[in-house]
């Protein structure tokens, strides 16, 4: 339902924008002013697309392209080597994915996975996705522009666009200048975008790895996790529940030192039986509030409290003198504050009969004590996965109240998107496929490497066409298989 609503709003926005553009262009009283406005601002509207184009950045590209020519020549030459190696790896990976799929062999991780908002992209992270695409697209095209200036190819202009909800960028280079420069210089220009995307991945990895050290003066790690968000109307929300900004240190007897430990604590609580607590038998009898007329049901749920209290819970226990199961309605807080036990033998007091009491719940339901902040432990009764999906946590605990709570999460998430999307652009753009950088990279490389051994330009053109056809079919098959995997 949410995906349908988003699609309807998106379609309504683009339909309204396109109809407004057509109306203003066709109306005599406003068409001249509107066309003048579009020409002055560089904006243009088409079906499901909004574009902005301007030569305003040409002087900036010229200055950067003329800065340290020797360094830039080496920089973009390294980009050629990286792009050519990546092209071979990309074709190999895409062939391997098709081969494994046709053999009906499970692929642990898709090489090519389409990102669909509301399907495999959380709606809350759409802005990360759009910002990452815009940053990667701009830096990709800036790479082409600077390399073109370095190789004496004129840059006509630069622009950005929004297609449906996918942002991007483009650069307009002089075709006449591109055709007259040597194949090696063409390669430096064509490979510059992919090279910059590769550098983005490396920088994002370095930032992600060094983040704990950089944030060390402001955040502490390795002792607890910080609660960054609690789902509304969940079992642990509310003023008496878990609150954003509290450190979470343990779940029962399982210490939570980082997100990995948090995951393990949840998994262990699902696999292991509920923990018990040591109480003297006489004390159990004194505080037991089980109704006198209650009798144990033959089957079904056991609730010796008859659901009459929010603070009491039904517990079961055995005594040393009797092997039969006893039930008692006990105050949950008082009971769980007692020492933890797994077996009856864990409980011992000289001269006092002590029992290990367990929550009388089914195998899926657990009673967990969640240690958070400086408040008493929160008692959670339910499936551990409900707890896990109700709470968002971070490894970084602020050292002061003025330190932003979500800053590490924002930086980490943005870096992960940069690594994922910029890496995907590297893999896809170098494939020798129509309309991708790989098409022009492949053509320039064939001209560079085969001009002396294959002097006939028609034969070189035929080789290029075969490679281009193969790459296009290969990428098309992967797109079809990825879409089929996503929706089946």
TrEMBL record:
Known role: Zinc metalloprotease that mediates intramembrane proteolysis of proteins such as ATF6, ATF6B, SREBF1/SREBP1 and SREBF2/SREBP2. Catalyzes the second step in the proteolytic activation of the sterol regulatory element-binding proteins (SREBPs) SREBF1/SREBP1 and SREBF2/SREBP2: cleaves SREBPs within the first transmembrane segment, thereby releasing the N-terminal segment with a portion of the transmembrane segment attached. Mature N-terminal SREBP fragments shuttle to the nucleus and activate gene transcription.
Lineage: superkingdom: Eukaryota
E.C. numbers: 3.4.24.85
Regions crossing the membrane: 6-24, 74-99, 126-143, 155-174, 194-219, 461-487
UniProt-listed GO biological process terms: membrane protein intracellular domain proteolysis; regulation of response to endoplasmic reticulum stress
Source organism of this protein record: Littorina saxatilis
Membrane topology according to the record: Multi-pass membrane protein
Protein name in UniProt: Membrane-bound transcription factor site-2 protease
Catalytic activity: Cleaves several transcription factors that are type-2 transmembrane proteins within membrane-spanning domains. Known substrates include sterol regulatory element-binding protein (SREBP) -1, SREBP-2 and forms of the transcriptional activator ATF6. SREBP-2 is cleaved at the site 477-DRSRILL-|-CVLTFLCLSFNPLTSLLQWGGA-505. The residues Asn-Pro, 11 residues distal to the site of cleavage in the membrane-spanning domain, are important for cleavage by S2P endopeptidase. Replacement of either of these residues does not prevent cleavage, but there is no cleavage if both of these residues are replaced
Start and end residues of each Peptidase M50 domain: 129-454
Keyword Lipid metabolism: no
Keyword Membrane part of the UniProt annotation: yes
Annotated GO CC locations: cytoplasm; endomembrane system; membrane
Subcellular location: Endomembrane system
Ranges in coiled-coil conformation: none
A GO term for molecular function: metalloendopeptidase activity
């Amino acid at each position: 339902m949410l995906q349908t609503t988003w699609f309807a709003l998106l379609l309504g926005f683009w339909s309204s924008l396109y109809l407004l553009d057509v109306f203003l262009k066709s109306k005599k009283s406003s068409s001249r002013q509107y066309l003048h406005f579009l020409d002055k601002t560089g904006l243009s509207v088409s079906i499901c697309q909004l574009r902005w184009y301007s030569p305003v950045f040409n002087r900036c590209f010229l200055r950067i392209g003329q800065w340290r020519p020797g360094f830039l020549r080496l920089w973009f030459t390294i980009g050629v080597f990286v792009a050519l190696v990546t092209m071979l790896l990309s074709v190999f990976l895409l062939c391997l994915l098709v081969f494994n799929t046709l053999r009906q062999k499970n692929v642990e991780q898709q090489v090519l996975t389409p990102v669909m908002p509301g399907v495999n992209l959380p709606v809350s992270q759409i802005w990360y996705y759009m910002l990452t695409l815009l940053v990667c697209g701009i830096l990709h095209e800036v790479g082409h522009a600077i390399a073109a200036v370095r190789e004496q190819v004129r840059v006509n202009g630069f622009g950005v666009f929004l297609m449906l909800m996918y942002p991007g960028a483009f650069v307009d280079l002089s075709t006449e200048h591109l055709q007259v420069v040597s194949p090696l210089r063409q390669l430096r220009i064509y490979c510059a975008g992919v090279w910059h995307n590769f550098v983005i991945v490396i920088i994002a990895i370095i930032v992600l790895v060094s983040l704990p050290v950089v944030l060390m003066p402001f955040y502490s790690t390795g002792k607890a996790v910080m609660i960054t968000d609690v789902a509304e109307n969940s079992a642990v929300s509310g003023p008496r529940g878990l609150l954003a900004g509290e450190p979470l240190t343990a779940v029962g007897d399982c210490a939570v030192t980082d997100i990995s430990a948090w995951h393990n604590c949840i998994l262990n609580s699902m696999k292991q039986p509920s923990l018990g607590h040591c109480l003297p038998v006489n004390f159990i009898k004194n505080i037991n509030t089980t109704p006198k007329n209650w009798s144990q049901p033959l089957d079904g749920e056991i609730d010796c409290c008859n659901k009459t209290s929010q603070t009491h819970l039904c517990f079961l226990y055995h005594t040393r003198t009797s092997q039969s199961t006893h039930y008692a309605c006990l105050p949950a807080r008082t009971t769980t504050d007692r020492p933890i036990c797994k077996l009856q033998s864990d409980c011992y007091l000289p001269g006092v009969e002590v029992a290990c009491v367990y929550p009388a719940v089914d195998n899926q339901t657990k009673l967990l004590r969640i240690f958070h902040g400086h408040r008493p432990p929160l008692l959670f009764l339910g499936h551990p996965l409900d707890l896990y999906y109700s709470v968002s946590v971070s490894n970084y605990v602020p050292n002061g109240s003025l330190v932003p709570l979500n800053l590490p999460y924002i930086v980490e998430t943005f870096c992960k998107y940069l690594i994922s999307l910029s890496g995907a652009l590297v893999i896809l753009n170098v494939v020798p496929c129509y309309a991708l950088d790989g098409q022009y990279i492949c053509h320039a490389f064939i001209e560079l490497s085969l001009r002396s051994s294959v002097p006939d330009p028609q034969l070189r053109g035929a080789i290029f066409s075969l490679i281009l056809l193969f790459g296009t079919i290969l990428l098309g098959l992967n797109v079809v298989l990825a879409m089929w995997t996503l929706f089946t």
